[in-house]
Amino acid sequence: MKKILLSAIVIATMTGCFNEPQSIELAGKDNKFQVEFLFEKDGIKMYRFMDGSHYHYFTSNGQTISTQTSGKTTYEEIIK
């Protein structure tokens, strides 16, 4: 199950920025964040939002991935 979820997160990180979300919901203080629902796999939903100039991805079961780019290098931080 963890391998499937990790695979879904990696796929979302690589392709999620290029596909339109299924739905968008406003959240946070003064509704300034657009939380985008990307897809559902095995009952787990994948979402993303942009903070500053970086996309952050998270799932409905609490796992989070943050992608940071510095020049030509991309760093991924997975929080379980």
Could you give the order of the helices and strands?
HEEEEEE
Radius of gyration: 12 Å
Q: How many E strands?
A: 6
Strand content: over 45%
Main sheet: strands, sense, barrel: 6 strands, antiparallel
Give the fraction of residues assigned to helices: 10-25%
Description:
The chain has one domain (2-79). The chain has 1 helix and 6 strands. The protein has one helix at residues 2-15, and strands at 23-27, 33-41, 44-51, 54-59, 64-70, 73-79. The radius of gyration is 12 Å and the shape is globular. It starts with a helix and ends with a strand.
Could you write a compact summary of the structure shown?
This protein is an alpha+beta fold and 80 residues long. It has 1 helix and 6 strands, in the order αββββββ.
Defining key terms:
single chain, 80 residues, alpha+beta, 1 helix, 18% helix
What is this structure's SSE topology?
Elements: H1 2-15, E1 23-27, E2 33-41, E3 44-51, E4 54-59, E5 64-70, E6 73-79
Antiparallel strand pairs: 1-2, 2-3, 3-4, 4-5, 5-6
